[in-house]
């Protein structure tokens, strides 16, 4: 199922909204948004995170509704660009990241502050999941490269991570090591049999 299908399903059948980061898998939409925001001026909203982890992070956001009917994507409420600037306190090293996105929520439903907050949560989840995929599954060195294999195996791995997190595990890596010892442990953990459900 493509992102367009998912967007239509969420809006039409689930009466919900979507918030997507636009990347290279949607080249037309990506280029249109990037071109529109190329000459952006002052941000609509900006926030700065305290240097709790040894770095200062500044996030800025710009939004627009002018692309809603132009973008080749269903149910766009607004497009946005988020700029994240990081400064390491010890070294003074500065870096900057740009992320483009679309949401079905209109400005009345989600102002720039709310869109930025949603994007921050989405970004944190993505980073966490990417870290687990790379560290625990060593995905970057996977030799599955033919057809839909890479995409399908990534979805299975993400599904496994989601299941483990949904059960309240503090450490995905530790729980994975525990469950790999026995198929029976997996059944009990997921409560897939009568005995495991009764025991729980």
Explain the overall architecture.
The structure is a single chain. By secondary structure, the protein is an alpha+beta fold. The chain has a domain at 1-109. It has helices spanning 3-13, 27-36, 112-136, 149-166, 172-179, 183-190, 194-199, and strands at residues 19-22, 45-49, 55-64, 78-88, 94-103. A five-stranded antiparallel sheet has the order 1-5-4-3-2, with helices on both faces. It is globular, with a radius of gyration of 20 Å.
What is shown here, in short?
With 200 residues, this protein is an alpha+beta fold. The chain is 43% helix and 20% strand.
The major sheet is characterized as: 5 strands, antiparallel
- Count of runs of 4 or more consecutive helical residues: 7
Identify the strand order in the major beta sheet.
1-5-4-3-2
Strands, total number: 5
The oligomeric status of these chains comes to: single chain
Q: Sketch the topology as an H/E string, one letter per element.
A: HEHEEEEHHHHH
What fraction of the residues are assigned to beta strands by DSSP? Answer: 15-25%
Task: Give the termini distance in whole angstroms.
Answer: 35 Å
Which bin fits the share of residues in helices?
Answer: 40-55%
């Amino acid at each position: 199922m493509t992102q367009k299908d998912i967007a239509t399903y969420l809006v039409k059948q689930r009466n919900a909204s979507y918030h997507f980061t636009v990347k290279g898998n949607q080249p037309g939409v990506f280029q249109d948004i990037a071109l529109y925001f190329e000459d952006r001026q002052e941000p609509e909203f900006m926030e700065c995170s305290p240097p709790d982890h040894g770095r200062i992070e500044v996030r800025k956001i710009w939004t627009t509704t002018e692309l809603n009917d132009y973008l080749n994507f269903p149910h766009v409420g607004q497009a946005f660009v988020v700029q994240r600037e990081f400064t390491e306190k010890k070294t003074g090293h500065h870096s900057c990241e740009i992320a483009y996105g679309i949401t079905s929520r209109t400005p009345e439903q989600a102002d720039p502050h709310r869109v930025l907050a949603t994007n921050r949560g989405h970004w944190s989840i993505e980073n966490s999941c990417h870290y687990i995929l790379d560290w625990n599954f060593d995905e970057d060195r996977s030799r599955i490269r033919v057809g839909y294999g890479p995409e399908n195996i990534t979805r299975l791995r993400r599904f496994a991570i989601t299941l483990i997190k949904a059960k309240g595990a503090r450490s995905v890596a530790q729980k994975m090591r525990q469950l790999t010892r026995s198929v029976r442990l997996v059944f009990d953990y997921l409560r897939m049999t009568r005995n495991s459900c009764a025991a729980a």
